Amino acid sequence: MVLRSSLFLSSLFLVGDDSFYVRCKMIDGGLRKIFRKHLPKFHWLSVETGLTEQGVPDSNFCIDGREGWVEFKLTSANKVPLRSEQIGWLLRRSRAGGRTYIAVRYRHSGGPRRGPPRDALYIYPGAAARLLALQGLSYGPLAAFEGGPGRWPWDRVRELIKN
């Protein structure tokens, strides 16, 4: 039984294989894979440090000598699920001068109370993590884009997170 648990844990933390992306899709709305597809000139590193350090964002990137971190989130409501460890890490790294961002995919299929279906991307600075956790999407983002990944202006996303 111990062998099974350790095999499960090791497979859970494999980075880069398709099954990893499938497992993450439920948590991050597929943003990790979407960002890699639409920002191919970025050098991306998927990070899973749950057993060693809590709160480290999902992905590290480097482009034109600039490095940064992105925490990907999915929500179908105003609330953005950020753990206290994630908030702490993002705030500490921001205070140290690091580039940190939270990319939130707001997605729902619509309905009588919700209105038409939506698929939007909100981008926040990591320094706003605490306010984002408290106020949700109503806290003003750096940028917000509607229409789903095929309609999001990836040139603007690129410039926003690389600078």
SSE string, helix = H, strand = E? HHHEEEHEEHEH
The 3D shape can be described as globular
Tally of DSSP β-strands? 6
Quote the average pLDDT: 86
Strand order of the largest sheet: 1-2-3-4-5-6
Instruction: Please report the first level of CATH classification, the CATH class.
Output: Alpha Beta
Give the termini distance in whole angstroms: 48 Å
Number of domains: 1
| Low-pLDDT regions | 1-25
Broad structural category:
alpha+beta
Report the biggest beta sheet as strand number plus sense, adding barrel if it closes: 6 strands, mixed
Rg over CA atoms: 16 Å
CATH fold group: Trna Endonuclease, Chain: A, domain 1
Indicate the percent of residues in helices.
25-40%
Oligomer state of the chains in this structure: single chain
Strand fraction band?
A: 15-25%
CATH architecture: 3-Layer(aba) Sandwich
Number of helices: 6
